[in-house]
Amino acid sequence: MTGKEFFKGTPLATVLELTRTFPCVSEEVLPLDQCVGRILSTDIVSQINLPEFNRATMDGYAVQARSTFGASESMPALFTIVGAIEMGEVPTVSVKAGEAVRIATGGMLPDGSDSVVMVEHAEALDDYTLEVFKSAAPLQHVIEIGEDFRLGEQVLSKGSPLRPQEMGVLAALGKTHVPVYRQPIVAIISSGDEIVPIEKPPGLSQLRDVNAYTLTGLVRLSGGVPLYLGIVRDNLDELDRFCRSALDQADMVLISGGSSVGSRDFTLEVIKGLPDSEVLVHGVSISPGKPTILARSKQKAIWGLPGQVASAMVVFQVMVRPMLETIGGLSEDRLGAAYEVSAVLSRNLASVQGREDYVRVKLVHRANQMYAEPILGKSGLIHTMVKADGLIRIDINSEGLDKGAPVRVILF
Amino acid sequence: MTGKEFFKGTPLATVLELTRTFPCVSEEVLPLDQCVGRILSTDIVSQINLPEFNRATMDGYAVQARSTFGASESMPALFTIVGAIEMGEVPTVSVKAGEAVRIATGGMLPDGSDSVVMVEHAEALDDYTLEVFKSAAPLQHVIEIGEDFRLGEQVLSKGSPLRPQEMGVLAALGKTHVPVYRQPIVAIISSGDEIVPIEKPPGLSQLRDVNAYTLTGLVRLSGGVPLYLGIVRDNLDELDRFCRSALDQADMVLISGGSSVGSRDFTLEVIKGLPDSEVLVHGVSISPGKPTILARSKQKAIWGLPGQVASAMVVFQVMVRPMLETIGGLSEDRLGAAYEVSAVLSRNLASVQGREDYVRVKLVHRANQMYAEPILGKSGLIHTMVKADGLIRIDINSEGLDKGAPVRVILF
């Protein structure tokens, strides 16, 4: 047998296409201050001009720009100070040629003025007389009506993640409550006769349930709500019961373990017995992560993940996370964007043709360049994951990558 | 006057040093499943060998490696199958030369065996006879006792952020509860007579309180807990009252607005009247963000941030976030690491010498290279922040950066 034959199985691209055939979660409306990190479920159109008035962006004097033309340190332009703008009040003065009005950052420009002279470019000789040392251009240090957003303009689009700045936009538009997608609930089931709860000292040959915690963390960081259901022993009825309960409560189900030949068949058998079920993928041509199952029941995804901790994490990053983002409403053009950075490979790296390899890397900044340093180690070892910052992908048709090659790093 | 004079003020490096002189928050103990994103407040030493037994990493057959030497497709080695390992049970069989025992991924190797032959490299002719087609090296497809972590080894260090993989390590060690740093509470005060709550339609010349929401989001994303106290009008007593209340409830205080000359003096006056207070910084030599104040009262930081939304965000990213990480217990070598990526500048960019410029950029992946595309626009405009993915810094002594220059991007 050749390496290629081992890695028959569905290509990753096909798996990712399949993940996009599952429906989005429903919407909910949240108070704006709780929206950071959530996904907008509707387009937002501005109902106002922002700002609604010409606003100063510097402390200084509102003037007609043309009155300053030609002013310099040696030949200052003279102005008459005719008033001061109180913050938050509509100016009662107006500005004519050769007149100036004191204004602070954020203040509303008075009628007649079209420019702000910075306080650093002017000197008040007394309460009424101002020298200006520099020409001001029209609209200098001014934000015009509607310059940020115009009435009727679409300012945010459905499927956008809400970062602090998008929260700022919504605040500026007075959106106290915001329609967002619900966070997908992800049921986590650990399987295997050898797995024990972490509070229990494992007997010799037993293993603590590590995947429950790595997956809990991954689900949270991917915008989902983890729902850990516990450990299922290698027992058909028990796994069936857990799966049905998971499908009732969650939007997606993760079963880790059960990746050995026997257990896998067993997980498949249970899945086939679930309502409206279909096995979509059984084995993926990536390493680590080959023994992965994707199935559908009642329009919900059931993933069978490898039991090895690092393999399960890789499968999560590469397949489950994009799917969680998709059913969580993230627009397609943004999928994965938050998790990828570019770097340069620090050494040569070999690979087996016929499968996609995912290699753990550590990121190292040197000067202004980021390097990806491969961390080699068995996929059952968790300490290799602790050292790593992300994964790089070696193409299915590639025999490896050279030192210095540009790579994209999927961040953990 | 020259640009240089305007940008007197404290260099950023000095401000960052000052932020490290504030004390850390206290600790708390959390259930492991709630620890993702939190900062470990103690070193973790392994009290066990992990794994505690030699573990198979593939489905296959446990053998003595030397019995396979020389095996090939054309000349398979013959083995007698003497049993099978049940998952989670201590093997009762032992393996001699020429013997094989069925084993699944995660299973415990029986006495006498030192290697696992993958199921793909072997064929069982009947229940007792196995052909092996490939030489197996000693310890092939085996994780040895203590290979992941050894008894007594320090596995995680104080000040580390807990990612999913660190949660996995803690699970493997049976740590159901974990000592972490408390999340710093950050009081947010908005100031200015022109600022109105977002639910209120602003009158002409008034502005909705946008900073409260951008800062709330930023605090949450930086591991803090935002505590919005409301809007203070330009009134000494009121600001004093808000500040004292903030210091009682929070670990850090942010006052946005009050950055115009008059209001700034006013914020300074209030700060000087607070208990054990000291103004550390009044003006920073960066743009945008010059009118920034850092003060200390009762060992807590009070920041006066610019009122312009983009400026306040830049100051937060560049100064407040590293400080939040520091008082939140993050170890110094990790400060900011999570937020920086490298990229290549997409066009020439000019700058004024004598100040550090922070320029908003959009990240664009092309092939395997990430480009930083400058987004130019006034710092009062929030739509420029919506378009941006991060900031790049132009050095205080630089006149600008050339197209193609490597840059580090501080992500939003």
The mean pLDDT of chain A is 92
Query: Based on DSSP secondary structure assignment, what is the total number of beta strands of chain A?
Result: 28
- Tally of individual helices of chain A: 8
Largest sheet of chain A: 6 strands, mixed
CATH superfamily of the largest domain in chain A: MoaB/Mog-like domain
Low-confidence stretches of chain A: 1-6
- The CATH architecture name of the largest domain in chain A reads 3-Layer(aba) Sandwich
Strand order, biggest sheet of chain A? 7-4-6-5-9-8
Description of the molecule:
- Two copies of one chain form a homodimer.
- The first copy, chain A, has four domains: about 5-25 and about 180-330, MoaB/Mog-like domain (Molybdenum Cofactor Biosythetic Enzyme, Chain A); about 35-50 and about 155-180, Molybdopterin biosynthesis moea protein, domain 2 (Alpha-Beta Complex); about 55-145, Molybdopterin biosynthesis moea protein, domain 3 (Molybdopterin biosynthesis moeA protein, domain 3), CATH 2.170.190.11; about 335-410, Beta-clip.
- Chain A has about 400 residues and is α/β, with parallel strands linked by helices.
- The longest helix of chain A is centred in the last third of the chain and has 19 residues, at about 310-325.
- Chain A is about 20% helix and about 30% strand.
- In chain A, strands 7-4-6-5-9-8 form a six-stranded mixed beta sheet, with no helix packed on it. In chain A, strands 16-13-17-21-20-18 form a six-stranded mixed beta sheet, sandwiched between helices. In chain A, strands 22-25-24-26-28 form a five-stranded mixed β-barrel.
- Mean pLDDT of chain A is about 90; it is low at about 1-5.
- The interface between A and B is large, with 113 and 113 residues.
